[in-house]
Write a structure and sequence with these properties.
This protein has helices at residues 4-10, 14-18, 21-26, 32-51, 59-74, 100-111, 130-140, 151-163, 184-191, 206-212, 239-249, 276-282, 307-315, 317-321, 326-340, 344-347, 349-355, 358-371, 409-421, 449-465; strands spanning 82-83, 118-119, 124-125, 144-148, 167-171, 194-198, 217-223, 252-258, 286-290, 301-305, 376-386, 389-402, 428-429, 431-433, 436-439. It is α/β, with parallel strands linked by helices. α7 (130-140) packs parallel to α15 and α18 runs parallel beside α20. The protein is globular, with a radius of gyration of 28 Å. The structure holds pyridoxal-5'-phosphate.
Length: 466
């Protein structure tokens, strides 16, 4: 019979827990106070549980829970994974993986002091932006540049500095949500500027912008519809037309490109993605885009444009609040240098993935399929760029399909996906479609094939034993 008093008495004291063999071993590495704290918390849980009418846990179980708590603190949840989903810019998986050169540059400034805001020639204070500004101007043809924390903060800074208490004209089809609750109307409100929507969801003409211009207008804004596509009867104003209207009316034109592509995406069979150079050439005053989408660098918000406007942004109080750190600055500079050297498709991981041929991917898929031991097939499929880039645009690929034709389709696919996520050395993430687990070599760099092969062999062993 359950006797609450007896159960309470069965609970060990903190000293007894600390004297257990497993905790004595942990005490060689961790301070006494930490272990006492964890033991007390666990005993508190136990007391609540007993008070709720449950039996006290066995001594070994209590010790095991405490040891697991310590293990969980040791291995943080943020760890590298293999992205076999076929979505190249997967926001949940950290968007762009970086080139070896970018990683080396980041490691170097992380390890040592750096000339971040120090002019080595004069020995006086410098600006953290000079390192990156000349690179960006050279690449895009812009007069000036500024790099901040991410593109969302670039949009907020741009609007706050240039359009506070004024009106900004945006096409109704572009007053959008980018995801992660970043909505253009909300950002506008936050910046203190007033959104004036013109046109309709599917069609906006230059005359719509023109008619909405008043003495309170500060800017004409374009927001690239980066995560959806309006198809059918549509009409949008091109950036050249908008830039021209801005010049004629002495208004700032602000272009939120989202992805910010430096290369011509159509060369790789993708839908046309607006290029940064094109907006600069059109005479747009301020252009902003992410560092970790199609640029393929670390998280950053990149702003390029007219010097007069960029200077205003640099002096705005928000600029300090959204400034970029030295490590990502170094990684971004190394990434931009790949473009300048003309080696972007060979060096920048996401461009290596985008430009990989189907033949090359097919060969790797065959090797993967072989490792998974006859339970899989290589099939045609499509990879996506993702990450709010090139909506609706896909690349042909070859996929390894596992679990097709089995009786327990759905349950099996989910079990296999879980096994791969639990892969000890490197979790592998696939995607499930029509109850089949699909693995796409396109979003996995060839250097990681050995991890995939080891994981797939483990999967076979697991299903034989289980
Ligand atoms: C992705 C995106 C943003 C937000 O960029 P982050 O770098 O994620 O902050 C803003 N605007 C557009 C059009 C985007 O596509």
């Amino acid at each position: 019979m359950f006797e609450m008093e007896t159960e309470f008495r069965r609970l060990p004291g903190v000293d007894k827990i600390l004297a257990s063999e497993r905790l004595t071993r942990l005490a060689e590495v961790y301070p006494h106070d930490l272990l006492v704290d964890l033991a007390r918390k666990q005993l508190e849980c136990e007391r609540r549980s007993v008070a709720g009418g449950r039996a006290a846990s066995a001594f070994d179980k209590i010790v095991a829970v405490i040891v697991n708590r310590v293990r969980a603190l040791e291995s943080p949840g943020l760890r590298p994974v293999v992205n076999a989903t076929g979505v190249i810019l997967h926001t949940n998986l950290g968007r762009a993986p970086l080139s070896g050169e970018a990683v080396a540059a980041m490691e170097a400034v992380a390890r040592d002091y750096s000339s971040l805001e120090f002019d080595l020639d004069s020995g006086t204070r410098g600006s953290r932006q000079v390192h990156i500004e000349s690179l960006l101007c050279q690449l895009t043809g812009a007069e000036a540049a500024l790099v901040v924390n991410n593109n969302a903060s670039a949009v907020l800074l741009g609007l706050s500095a240039l359009a506070r208490r004024k009106e900004v004209i945006v096409s109704r089809g572009e007053a959008v949500e980018i995801g992660g609750s970043f909505r253009i109307p909300d950002v506008m409100r936050q910046s203190g500027s007033k959104l004036i929507e013109v046109g309709t969801t599917n069609c906006t003409y230059i005359a719509d912008y023109e008619e909405a211009i008043t003495p309170r207008t500060a800017a004409l804004m374009r927001v690239h519809s980066s995560n959806f596509k309006v198809v059918g009867f549509t009409q949008a104003v091109d950036i050249e037309g908008l830039a021209e209207l801005g010049q004629r009316n002495d208004l700032t034109v602000f272009d939120d490109l989202g992805s910010g592509c430096f290369l011509d995406a159509t060369v790789y069979g993708l839908a046309p993605e607006p290029m940064v150079q094109q907006s600069v050439a059109a005479g747009v005053g301020l252009i902003c885009f992410s560092g970790d989408k199609l640029v393929g660098g670390p998280q950053a918000g990149i702003m390029v444009g007219k010097k007069k406007l960029i200077d205003k942004l640099k002096k705005h109080p928000l600029a300090r609040a959204v400034r970029i750190d030295k490590i990502r600055l170094a990684g971004l500079a190394a990434t931009l240098l790949h473009y300048l050297k003309g080696e972007a498709t060979g060096k920048i991981p996401i461009w290596r993935m985008i430009s990989a041929s189907v033949e090359e991917i097919a060969q790797r898929a065959e090797v993967w399929a072989e490792a998974s031991g006859g339970s899989s097939q290589v099939v045609d499929g499509e990879s996506m760029v993702g990450g709010g880039s090139l909506p609706g645009s896909t690349l042909p690929t070859r996929l390894v399909a596992i679990g097709e034709g089995k009786v327990k389709g759905k349950a099996l696919a989910q079990r296999l996906a879980r096994e791969l996520r639990r892969n000890e050395s490197f979790p592998v993430i696939g995607r499930i479609s029509d109850d089949v687990l699909l693995l796409d070599p396109r979003s996995v760099l060839p250097e990681e094939d050995k991890i995939m092969i080891q994981a797939l062999k483990g999967l076979v062993a697991e299903s034989k034993s289980g």
